[in-house]
Amino acid sequence: AAPDALPRDLEGLHVAVSAGGTREPLDPVRYLGNRSSGRQGWALARVAAQRGARVTLVAAHTADLATPAGVDLVRVGSAEQLRVAMHEVAASADVVVMAAAVADFRPVATAGHKIKKTDRDPEPVALTRNADILAELVTARRSGQVVVGFAAETGDEGADVLEYGRAKLKRKGCDWLVVNAVGDGKAFEVEDNSGWLLSADGTETPVPHGSKAQLASAVWDAISSSLKGRGT
Ligand code: CTP
Ligand code: CA
């Protein structure tokens, strides 16, 4: 739909969206990263702005994407930088969406100079855990603030995608978890997504196979009606 055909139901709200993949430096020229393109976060930010929200988009590494119209863009690199930026913007946000692919681990040490090869095999890279930004944002949640997480799940012999999603929603304590079914060429580096919107109140809404913009619209539809239901 054209932007002027969209509802202006997010007017008066400040939304913070994280996007892209963090990069954890090994030395000044090398990092541990992931394949996130940032496109889902971009779609969430673009649609929110089109529906009237004030939008801050905190972006780690992404594909070469144009900044959506009317969106404030903040660039970060590592998970720790993303963490600091998200806490800062969350302090004034009504809705916080963690669509970024945050590295779970970072190298224990970052060399100050380029690591040189020698005649011998290298030492293994020692890793340590990164902070769970989503869980921290839930702990710091202001009254009435809505916190949304994303999960990409494949399912395995132990549990299916939806079961992993339900467990993750509980563990993270967020208000909404957007669960993407991945594998078979879904989600990473492709245009389409499919999955479920899981609400902390137990509501489970399937999201049909469609574009990242359609998933973004479904997320904002759900958040918008939950805020209306509260009478805000
Ligand atoms: N997330 C985060 N900080 C981290 C790791 C993840 O804020 N250090 C957020 C992601 O942005 C996403 C949600 O948590 O919104 C779920 O991320 P995911 O990687 O699926 O969950 P994990 O708890 O890291 O579990 P696992 O990778 O083992 O499935
Ligand atoms: Ca993870």
From TrEMBL:
It comes from the Bacteria. Its cofactor is FMN; Mg(2+). One of its GO terms (molecular function) is phosphopantothenoylcysteine decarboxylase activity. Coiled coil: none annotated. CTP binds at residues 104, 114, 150, 168, 172. Binds 1 FMN per subunit. Its EC number is 4.1.1.36, 6.3.2.5. Residues 10-225 form the DNA/pantothenate metabolism flavoprotein C-terminal domain. One of its GO terms (cellular component) is phosphopantothenoylcysteine decarboxylase complex. Pathway: Cofactor biosynthesis; coenzyme A biosynthesis; CoA from (R)-pantothenate: step 2/5; Cofactor biosynthesis; coenzyme A biosynthesis; CoA from (R)-pantothenate: step 3/5. Keywords: Decarboxylase, Flavoprotein, FMN, Ligase, Lyase, Magnesium, Metal-binding, Multifunctional enzyme. In the N-terminal section; belongs to the HFCD (homo-oligomeric flavin containing Cys decarboxylase) superfamily. Catalyzes two steps in the biosynthesis of coenzyme A. In the first step cysteine is conjugated to 4'-phosphopantothenate to form 4-phosphopantothenoylcysteine, in the latter compound is decarboxylated to form 4'-phosphopantotheine. Catalyzes two sequential steps in the biosynthesis of coenzyme A. In the first step cysteine is conjugated to 4'-phosphopantothenate to form 4-phosphopantothenoylcysteine. In the second step the latter compound is decarboxylated to form 4'-phosphopantotheine. This is Coenzyme A biosynthesis bifunctional protein CoaBC. The gene is coaBC. The chain holds residues 184 to 415 of 420 of the full protein.
